[in-house]
Amino acid sequence: MKRRTGTAAQESSEAWNGRTGRAARESSGAPRRRTGTAPQESPETRNRRTGTAAREPLGVRQGSRRASAFLARRSLATHRRAWAAVVVATGAAAALIGAFAFVIGSLLVAAPPVQRYAGADAVVAADQKVSYTAKPWGSEPRTTTAYLPERARLDRSVLAAVVGADGVAKAVADDSVPVSMGDGQAAVGRSWPSAVLTRYELAEGRAPRDATEVVLDGSLAAGGTAPDERVVLRADGTARTYTVSGIARTGLGGDAPPTVFFTEPRLAALAGHPGRIDAIGVVAEPGVSPNALRDAIGAVLPERSGVPGSDRGVRVLTGAERGEAEHVDALGGRGDQLALLGSIGGTVLMVALLVIASTLSQAIHQRAGELALLRAVGASPRQLRSAIGREAGRVSAAAALLGGIGAVPLGLAMRSLLTTETLPLPVPWWLPPAAALTGGLLVALLARPVAMLAARSITRLRPAAALGAATADEPSGPGRFRTVAGVVLAFAGISSAGVATTQSGQAAGAAASGAAMSLVIAVALLGPPVSRIALGVLGRPLRRVGGVSGFLAERAASAHTRRLATAFTPIVLVVAFVCVQLASGPTMERASGHQASAALRADLVATGGGAGLPAGAARAVREAPGVTAATGVLRSTVVLADRQAGEPVLTRLPVLGVEARGLSGTLDPRVTAGDLDRLTGRDAVAVGADRAKSLDVGPGDQVALRLGDGTRVEPRVVAVFEHELGLGEFLFPREALAGHVSAARDQVVLIRTEAGTGTGTGTGAGSGADPAAAVRQALAPYGGGVTVRAATGDDVAIAPPVSDGDNALIVIGVGVIGGFALLAVVSTLALITIGRRGEFRLLRMVGTGRRQLRRMLVLETGLVTFAGLVIGTAVAAVPLTAFAVSLAGTAPYLPPTHYGVIAGAVALAAAAGTLIPGAAAGGRFVLGRRAG
Prior knowledge:
Elements lengths: L7 H13 L2 H6 L14 H8 L7 H21 L1 H29 L13 E5 L2 E6 L7 E6 L6 E2 L1 H7 L4 E7 L2 E5 L4 E6 L9 E5 L7 E5 L12 E5 L5 E10 L9 E4 L1 H8 L4 E2 L1 E6 L5 H11 L13 E4 L5 H4 L3 H36 L2 H9 L4 H38 L12 H24 L1 H4 L3 H7 L10 H21 L4 H21 L1 H33 L1 H39 L4 E4 L8 H7 L4 E18 L2 E12 L4 H4 L4 E4 L9 E5 H7 L9 E2 L5 E2 L2 E6 L2 H4 L2 E4 H5 L9 E6 L17 H9 L7 E4 L13 H31 L2 H9 L4 H38 L8 H26 L2 H4 L5
Parallel strand pairs: 7-12, 9-11, 18-24, 20-23
Antiparallel strand pairs: 1-14, 1-15, 2-3, 4-13, 5-14, 6-7, 6-10, 8-11, 9-12, 10-11, 16-25, 16-26, 17-18, 17-25, 19-23, 20-24, 21-22
Helix pairs in contact: 1-4, 1-11, 4-12, 5-10, 5-12, 5-13, 5-26, 10-13, 10-19, 10-26, 11-15, 12-13, 16-17, 16-28, 17-19, 17-28, 18-19, 18-28, 19-26, 19-28, 19-29, 26-29, 28-29
């Protein structure tokens, strides 16, 4: 059976000459010669090449185009297996880029849902954004903004102004408090007048008339509760019994949270912030449009919210904007997700470019001999470039189509991981085609220039020189430009890692990420020298272990160091990227957990479920028998204005609010300066050692901060402590935060008992009673939902266990991008193996046995896998060490099982990319019985 392999250049040149006649001679400007002497370039040819003469005749140009098109068609048919591997890799790159465009586009148009204010035509609320302006080095002043994590409130006097605006039929003050039912179920407490804002209507009974009556919504009354029955509720303080005066229902169904309605005076007392309100819901008069209502209310509103200490402006929200008043931190979370996805997206783009360039360059490089032969028999540089461009264009078009189709389901899957109840991600009609077009168009635009650039070294040769290049050995060096660029990037990566050790927070993370990407690209550019180093270390053991097959594997790798570098570069990429992504979180969690556990001195902890515990719970626990100390812990967030590399930055920092009384018995932050006993009042703060150093403050100095609701404060530093990674960078008195959080409820109460050991509950001294039982008895008046258990470091850790949002980003960063990188490993190795068909046939013809050849492939796969794992681990270790040292002060940590999964996945991908195509590369002649 006639074999087609290896004859593409000969068949193409014969057919090309037959179809175009003198096209080659006319385009080269001289008659074709059969000797090895280089033809003299005529003046006409020189002029055409340099562009100083008139354009070629139309017939010549048309013949050249037909020749290029013919070469492209024949080459695509001859090298269809190699191009198939390129289509897979570039198509996956297009799908990944399109999927990220899909998710980012969905996030950009996402908005909090309108539920609570579905019946309101407009909502008046304080502005939830803060800004900071600073002048970077050598630049104009710049302003950055951030969303506040806690609700900024309005002065109640604003309500009177809104009521008097034109077109307003009703304006209602809206507050809310967390409520716990008798069985521990969490609910929201609101005033009955605000029920109109959610379109609640009485289904049974009547409205509450005094502080002892409530109205339940349908979900809370589903158990059979009826008007005039009694229910136990805990809103502020101990649980109380209320009379159900009515049952209300709304058309929102299951979208509305469980709600308890109090009288307006009772709710104001429970809210605990007299003179301030959360928001104002407005119902318009019939016929008043939202825009007209907005303008009318805006005309009577003050510029500021009127709350003492706050400089918040006042906003009028209509339409979809009303959801921003319900979920105050939803847009802040969206901003954080966009920043992280943007960072990951930049990495995705770099990875995709690297994969596309690597696979296309390898596909062209494997045909260097064929291209050189075509150049030697008279093909002009323009014809060869055109033919290669046509091939790459057709391949990239197929890849773009497949990638664009795959981008939509992949984007939908990523969207499902990121969407939440407070911020559902929409899918407008234009988003899927736009995302698919983005990924496909980017790949299609990149493929042609990359392919033509890869063939530049062959197409620019003279015909005589090309004839020698057709049989020349593979160049062993990367070239001067690649060497210089690789050295510069390696130096930049190491320098960036060094800078990360001197930074903190986001600056350190950004520097470490930049170091990882720079080092990966440096390895790709300096592949041949790195390959020679790897062979110098692994070559001798490979020969000893493998015998004849090991000798063949070592010699094949030594003769083709560029090919070896191309083989292990995607492995280095996947190992380095996945290790950095997987190790960053565990490193921080481990260090934070160790510090939190070291700081914890309590042996019991009390929690109050979703509604939390009021401040009186800690006081009640202190009176329990066997309890020596009890500390309520209130969580909040502050905003710090700072500069990083001269740029203005607003950083949201989680903080803890505690009581100084008995704090030493439950928590030990390890104070290095000052005294925590002075952590009282509204004008005190304790600062972590690293943050104090960066701010250049100590005991007695003041720190400018914004509390969670935007209030400007300048508390005085009373202590500096070491355990900031576990407890946060600032510790506040509870009373300083209580008036500036959405709900002043303790998340936990830390408890130290007489017999406490820090790891268990023990028993009370002398009395023989169980301290946990005594604490439960003390908390019994606070109703159901209160639990008492052994304390752990997670109860006080400022960075609690990984959230669902963090898990989603980990899945996207590791699962999606890591899967793409593994697919690139398979495609690249398959492309390389397919290009070695002639080599395998020659080995079989000279007597290499089937088992020897198979073993050679296995050993080569092991060499590539091991080298890629070692180099990738080394590349990841540099930025990870910088990141861990700068932020955690420890060595990086990656669970051994995670690294085992990485190594196993890489080994499977390498085996699939080498052994399967190797078995099929030459059919029976390669791995079957030797012919002849």
